Amino acid sequence: MRARLREIIGISKRVGFNAVLTWALRPLKKRPAMDDESRPLFIPVGSNPARVFALDARERACRLAAKAGLACANATELGRGALLCNLAYAWDPAWLSLLASRPGSVLVYRGEPVLAHVPPGSSTAPAQQAMLGPGGSLEGLERIDAETEEVSYDELRKRDRPFVLPLDVATAEQVERAAYDASYKGVTDALTLYLWRKPAFHLTRWAAQAGLSPNAVTTIGAVFCVLAFFLFWQGLYWPGVAAGFVFMVLDTVDGKLARCTGTASKWGEAFDHGIDLVHPPFWYWGWAHGLAAYGTPLEPVYAAMLLTAIILGYVAQRVIEGIFIVRFKMHIHVWQKIDSQFRLVTARRNPNMVLMAGALLFGRPDVGLELVAAWTILSLIFHLVRLAQAEACAWRGEKLVSWLG
Q1: How far is 97 from 71, CA to CA, in rounded Å?
Q2: Which of 12, 204, 372, 390 lies 20 to 30 Å from 42, alpha-carbon distance?
Q3: What is the pTM of this model?
Q4: What is the C-alpha separation between 182 and 161, in angstroms, rounded?
Q5: How far, in Å, CA of 15 to CA of 6, rounded?
Q6: Whole-angstrom Cα distance, residue 55 to residue 262?
Q7: Around Cβ 361, how many Cβ atoms within 10 Å?
């Protein structure tokens, strides 16, 4: 038994380090090369003057297809499959992955074809004609009903029914709202999920209309992030909270803009994720330093202890998340329902800012720092227990699966 425990500890140490690198740098990892010739060509069918997030229907559809690894074309090629897209409809990009993996299938909405994967060697003419009007045929294609099929979004940590909507000038805003909602993570903190969901939609829409790229939004947010740190450092807490609030909202906007316009990039993901990963400890440090200027100083040793607890607790929770991903191939926050619920309030930047701003309302930013330290320790204990429980399940030979499906 002792030898087994020593073996487990040794493996955990090695996995922990590798897990952190894997998790922290995951946007930088090079995806496996795809055999382009084995992927169906993405072929838009018809035309549509409606614009969604300032993009015409064809351009946006082709961008989303490119993000899914599909080449956009005007016609089929001999010996190659085709994924036909009816431009009279707008759809969640999740449908592309599903249809691309199922040759000989067609996505229908109220009986009308939306996306059709015609396998190599078959004519696309009947399905194309069916998309354009009467006279076509979907014979031989397996029908997938858009109003009943559900899909798991591993990246967005949710299981949902992807949207399909008729697209025209009158429904463009409805489509934008549906696309925005579809880009939202199902498991995140309460502020992101509820408080600024609607304001961020309008900002995302405005950014698209203004021609701003997601990286430009990330850069603007980074400026406010740094500004918040310097304001905290000087004890100017309310201006710092305001700057931090702007950054936190823009941190939502850049990702949604990238997904809604099909402009996500490896560099953009790394840039955004890197800022998210690095900046929280600096904010806590700046907050602690500004206490003296504000008039509520803490004894230096005690302040150092609080910062140590917050920063080490933050890093430790990231390590646990990384270990969980490596060990069980999923985020710890999607294992069971309680994990998703706890993610709403776990000791991350947004919930911690609520604690600090709440204490500031009573003129006690020092108490805010103490609350963050306490909540960080409690959150760390929760995640340690959950990791131990997961390991116990694996020890008994049980396969861990997400409650989201």
Answers
A1: 13
A2: 204
A3: 0.82
A4: 9
A5: 14
A6: 10
A7: 9
